[in-house]
């Protein structure tokens, strides 16, 4: 990563010690490579959480399908009323093309997202962790509400198998919005 990237992150997050920004960026480089700046930015936003807006983290194994679709729905439907994160216990290399296509069919673009690991910063900043098949590898933090959504994995599946998963995720996300007392934007 360039010094420009580091300077930009330090400038964007002046309340965070520069050494902490450096540490998170270097860690993010080792974890997600080319997406390090975006991942660091997400982690820094979690560190400086200064609002009462509820936060939700969607966790699955590869962070390439279910959790990305759920995050796409919650970001779209919850708008500024909720902070949304997604991660995986064993992040994949890319977003599942079938998940991208399925979400595109309902007008939600997740193609710019990328699989990433869970981070302590995000886990400590969220109110709810929704697990989707990461099993024993999901982290646990006392005081955080955990919900398990038992969903089929769309990996390697045809669209006629992925669409019902997508639709089930939408229903669950809408229910979560009600539980969080967040009015859907659409």
Could you describe the 3D structure shown?
There is one protein chain. With about 190 residues, the chain is α/β, with parallel strands linked by helices. It has two domains: about 1-50; about 50-180, Response regulator (Rossmann fold, 3-Layer(aba) Sandwich), CATH 3.40.50.2300. About 45% of the residues lie in helices and about 10% in strands. It contains seven helices and four strands, in the order αααβαβααββα. The chain has helices at about 5-10, 20-30, 35-45, 65-80, 95-105, 120-125, 160-180, and strands at about 55-60, 85-90, 130, 145-150. The chain has a four-stranded parallel beta sheet. α2 crosses α3, α4 crosses α7 (about 160-180) and α5 crosses α7. It is globular. The model has no long low-confidence stretch (mean pLDDT about 95).
List keywords for this structure.
alpha/beta, 11% strand, 4-stranded parallel beta sheet, Rossmann fold, 2 domains, 7 helices, 46% helix, 186 residues
Task: Describe the structure concisely for a colleague.
This protein has helices spanning 3-12, 18-32, 36-47, 66-78, 97-105, 120-125, 159-179; strands spanning 55-60, 83-88, 128-131, 145-148. It contains 7 helices and 4 strands, in the order H-H-H-E-H-E-H-H-E-E-H.
CATH class (first level) name of the largest domain: Alpha Beta
Listing every helix as H and every strand as E from the N terminus to the C terminus, the arrangement reads HHHEHEHHEEH
* Main sheet characteristics: 4 strands, parallel
- Major beta sheet, strand line-up: 2-1-3-4
Uncertain spans: none
DSSP helical segment count: 7
% residues in beta strands:
5-15%
Question: Which descriptor suits the 3D outline?
Answer: globular
The total count of strands amounts to 4
Just name the CATH architecture of the largest domain.
3-Layer(aba) Sandwich
Kindly report how far apart the N and C termini lie.
38 Å
Number of domains: 2
- What is the CATH third-level topology name of the largest domain? Rossmann fold
Report the C-alpha radius of gyration, rounded. 16 Å
Helix content: 40-55%
Overall pLDDT metric: 93
Structural class: alpha/beta
């Amino acid at each position: 990563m360039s010094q420009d990237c580091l300077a930009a992150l330090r400038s964007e997050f002046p309340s965070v010690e520069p050494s902490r920004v450096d540490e998170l960026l270097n860690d993010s480089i080792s974890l997600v490579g080319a997406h390090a700046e975006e991942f660091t930015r997400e982690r820094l936003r979690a560190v400086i959480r200064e609002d009462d807006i509820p936060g939700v983290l969607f966790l699955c194994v590869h962070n390439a399908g279910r959790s990305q679709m759920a995050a796409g729905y919650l970001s779209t439907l919850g708008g500024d009323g909720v902070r949304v994160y997604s991660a995986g216990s064993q992040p994949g290399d890319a977003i599942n093309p079938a998940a991208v296509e399925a979400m595109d069919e309902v007008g939600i673009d997740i193609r710019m997202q990328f699989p990433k690991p869970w981070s302590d910063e995000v886990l400590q900043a969220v109110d709810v962790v929704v697990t989707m098949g990461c099993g024993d590898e999901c982290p646990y933090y006392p005081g955080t509400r955990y919900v398990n959504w038992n969903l089929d994995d769309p990996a390697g599946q045809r669209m006629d198998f992925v669409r019902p998963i997508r639709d089930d995720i939408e229903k669950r996300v809408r229910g979560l919005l009600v539980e969080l007392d967040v009015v859907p934007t659409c």
